[in-house]
Amino acid sequence: MTLAVHRLEADELRAAHTLFAAAIHRPPANDAGWAASARLYSPGRTFGVHAGDMLVATATSFPSDLAVPGGAVLPMAAVTRVGVRADHTRRGLLTAMMRAQLDDTAARGEPVATLRASEARIYGRFGYGVATRGRSVRVRADATLFRPEAPRGAVRLLERGEIVPVLREIHARIALRRPGGITRTEGWWAVGTGRRVDVEREHVLAAVHTGQQGDDGFAIAYLADANGVSGRSLDVVDLHGDVGATASLWRFLMGVDLVESVQAHLRPLDEPMELLLADPRASVVTGNEDETWLRLVDVPVALAARSYGAAEPVLLAVHDGLLEANSGVYRIADGSAERVGPLGGQVRPELECTVDALAMAYLGDRRPSELVATGWWSAPDPEAVSRADAAFATAGTPWCGTYF
Ligand SMILES: CC(C)(COP(=O)(O)OP(=O)(O)OC[C@H]1O[C@@H](n2cnc3c(N)ncnc32)[C@H](O)[C@@H]1OP(=O)(O)O)[C@@H](O)C(=O)NCCC(=O)NCCS
What's the CATH superfamily of 5-110? Predict the structure, then answer.
């Protein structure tokens, strides 16, 4: 049986949605649910595989933008809703869809793609690497735990009808300030703020921080275990802002009555909870998670788009088994990067990596030296490693904060 990948038509998207739901062990959407979820699908960006008349595999993406070190913003495919029917797995359907999607992304002129992985061993083979990470944090709900000197700004709660328009505007203004930040679509906001929590139905706390230049941070939190009246945990599902804004928002959430603890997942690795609290042990890290899986679809464009630290030139060989045009030797120097030769040519590389391992360093999450030390990169010339560290160094820790 030949199983070919097709671009799905608009009237096939509900079947794709149902298939994906089943793949992640969820029931199909009812009519109202589908009416809302249909907005998550961007025209012409959903692929599927049929066995006879039956859809057995699907993957989609929506257009977004990704902030890279130095402040440039690249068009990005946000890959999502990838699923294969349980009775058709492990026969190459995902592989076929990934190839079709990568070709499509390249043809659209989107030099990068990112996704969130349900399991960590699926996407490396397609050139995706972990490019941002987060940590889960739980802290006692007691605002007096804050050091008096820690930032304390003005925080207000939003009314239900204000939540999406106000937060959408703030997010659009601030999210791309940090490498790894992405833009959100209307559909993302419309459907349960990216499926984390339905602000139309649940009781949520939506808080905004106002700094010197106006509104510059926000948080959405809700009581995950809303039985009984007290002793419960407040789940933070969205929290953005600089250190001053996030400190003020954490302080606010920790001061809400009838709550015992506040917890959040995928917080930036450099969020300084321990520095904000008089008792640093009141904040407990309960997990570490991969966040952004990044695929450099057009390596020359992506490498040229980001900034580099001052360093003597580095010659880096990149291997890409799926998109061969990316393979080659790149010279990173004087704050820029360009391809200077093919693999195995005259120009001898000092360092070598595959495209997924390049993604791990691209936004600044991992240093070349740690990737060499752990076998992700190799260093034909070990002296180049410290130069590569200096070139790829970034000012802050990359982070996205948008689940999709
Ligand atoms: C994950 C999923 C999409 C894989 O689809 P698939 O059609 O079985 O994948 P393929 O047959 O193309 O597999 C390609 C390779 O990846 C490996 N692979 C696929 N899924 C894997 C997994 N979950 N863990 C480890 N390896 C996996 C396969 O073994 C195969 O390896 P090989 O080339 O060495 O033989 C499918 O199992 C699924 O729908 N899972 C549930 C939903 C889900 O997790 N979706 C992803 C959301 S991000």
Answer: Gcn5-related N-acetyltransferase (GNAT) (3.40.630.30)
